[in-house]
Amino acid sequence: MIPRARLEDIDEAAIRQLIDHGVRESRTLDYKEQLDLSKDGRQALAEDVCAFANTVGGDLVFGIREADGVADEVMPLVIPNLDEELLKLTNFLRDVLEPRVTGSLLHRAVPLAAGAHVVVLRVGASPNAPHRVLRNNHFYLRHSGGKETMDIHAIRTAFAFADGLAERAFTFRNQRLDILRNHQGPCHLPVGPLVVVHVVPTLALTRRGAARRRRKVTMLCSSRRREATNR
């Protein structure tokens, strides 16, 4: 994704920084010189969205020419009725993937001082992954060099991992409640009834790398609690 940028905060300066800093395409960032709204163009874009949604999400930036994968020049997009066209496009992209990509697909038309726009299409990591493109029944993944079709092993692994989403959420909640019951939390809690609200980012439960990081954090916290007890 565009480094350290909320979608609503992306402006022309943020776009120019991609070029000034030589930001390279990556697993979460892809540059497109044009926004092809033809039938074939939209179908090709559906594959890109599918790949991002099945991996860790990312930004498609339309209106930037790249050279060997590095942002090179702004190519302003002149598209009549741009807002209407983007709404049609996002609705199309939601409908051509199965299961549908819903709230994790957003767009922003970034106005340029010289006129026209650069368009950013942000795809979130989907809790409903894996998705497939209905036109060809293919599943896609994103890597640093672009997208690739998932093989049968990758598809099986993705479905197996998705099936355990609810179980991982309940397991996380129960582990945290046990910590609070045993008075091992990061701060002292008063004795008596408690109302505990857990806010868990979907990404924390849908990606194995994030799961490994959570285990490391849990182990580190446990180690520090033991050290504090032994003092």
Could you outline the blueprint of secondary structure elements for this entry?
Elements: H1 12-20, E1 29-32, H2 39-54, E2 58-62, E3 64-67, E4 70-74, H3 82-95, E5 97-98, E6 105-111, E7 117-123, E8 132-133, E9 138-143, E10 146-149, H4 152-163, H5 165-181, H6 202-206, H7 208-230
Parallel strand pairs: 1-2
Antiparallel strand pairs: 2-7, 3-4, 5-8, 6-7, 8-9, 9-10
Protein name: ATP-binding protein
Pfam families: SLFN_AlbA_2
Keywords: ATP-binding, Nucleotide-binding
Key terms:
about 230 residues; alpha+beta; Methyltransferase, Cobalt-precorrin-4 Transmethylase, Domain 2; 4-stranded mixed sheet; 4-stranded antiparallel sheet; 7 helices; globular
